[in-house]
Amino acid sequence: MSVSLTTPVYSVSDNLLSMSDLLSCFVNPKHQLRGLSRYSDLHLKVAQPAAFRYDGELRAISGGVPLTAEVIEMLIFPMLGDEQWKRLKTEPLADIDASWEWTEKNITFRLNVFSDRDGIAAVIRGLPAQIPAVQDMGFPAEEVWQDICGLKNGLVLLTGNTGSGKSTTIAAFANYINQTRPVRIITLEDPIEYVFKSQSALFSQRELGRHIPSFSAGLRSALREDPDIIFVGEMRDRETIALALTAAETGHLVFSTLHTRDTRGAITRIIDMFPGDRTKEIATQLSMGLAYIISQKLVRNQTGGRTVAMEVLKNTPSMGNLIRSGGIHQINTQLETQSKEGMITLEGHLKMLIRAGTISVIEAMENANDPLALQMLLTK
């Protein structure tokens, strides 16, 4: 296909735009806040205008005509490799995950190309050109990120919905460690998002489908490669979870992600993935290997842009006992009462952001896991 990033193919208000024109929104300084773009995703779908997610809200391009399959293919073609393009054209059920670096603009994009009932579709996510400093990520207490970046072993889980910034938070941890600790870091990603250059640390980044066949296989391999720190993109299956827990128990620091809305949900998700005769064993292993769970959401600021709201669980001896003994329902009480350990509920952090004038009460209520609990906190 003889098109490039700058080939004008998409009609918007009687003008023809190229993929370059569309992606330029992600690097426009007028739409950045604290160095981060307020644009997060570009959506392309047959029979609909192109749409951007801006401050978390999906907005169709004003004046954009409905896309055709041919136009979408011409837009995404320059961002796909030969093998990926071949798969897309020859495999009806192909679901392409890829990353693409726009070197001239110093920004990387993550692509997912798939088919729905109307035809080809794509979602393109812009990743910050610079990894945010961990100090600027918005942790409710500095001691939390400082403690995590100094850990020698244990499992650190980041949870939240798709697009909640989990990968960015882990990248901020890794970037700080890279600058301050002489350690061996191996990442297993799908796809590689942030590219690291070894500084104090020695990095190896491996991508699913290119360097490893699966997360579990990559993790098994990584354990033979003398790592200090391992980042597993996502804990998707029992084998990956079991290997991650073993790695955390045997002197490695492991970072990974899960799609759960809160910290308690992450614990139950891990335990419930195993058959009943293994739940006690996994709960015990988790109670010993877990270090932290951070569940996060991106919420709209009052002045524009978004900020992170976090729930933080630290695996203290009393928390470990709850996990081991099946007292999961008591976890929230621990989060509410162990602030000296850096723990906090999502509602507790939302209250802090309201009091600081960062977010509105309405926005906080819309994002709270327990709006009634937040309402009670705000009366104190």
Notes on the structure:
With 380 residues, the protein is an alpha/beta fold. It has 2 domains: 10-127, Beta-Lactamase (2-Layer Sandwich), CATH 3.30.450.90; 134-378, P-loop containing nucleotide triphosphate hydrolases (Rossmann fold, 3-Layer(aba) Sandwich). The protein contains 14 helices and 17 strands. The chain has a 7-stranded mixed sheet, sandwiched between helices. A 6-stranded antiparallel sheet has the order 7-6-5-10-9-8, with helices on one face. A two-stranded antiparallel ribbon has the order 1-2. Strand 3 (32-33) and strand 4 form a beta hairpin. Helix 8 (263-272) packs across helix 9. The longest helix is centred in the middle third of the chain and has 15 residues, at 166-180. The termini are far apart. The model has no long low-confidence stretch (mean pLDDT 94).
Q: Which CATH-level-2 architecture of the largest domain?
A: 3-Layer(aba) Sandwich
Question: Major sheet, described briefly?
Answer: 7 strands, mixed
- How many helices in DSSP terms? 14
> What fraction strand?
25-35%
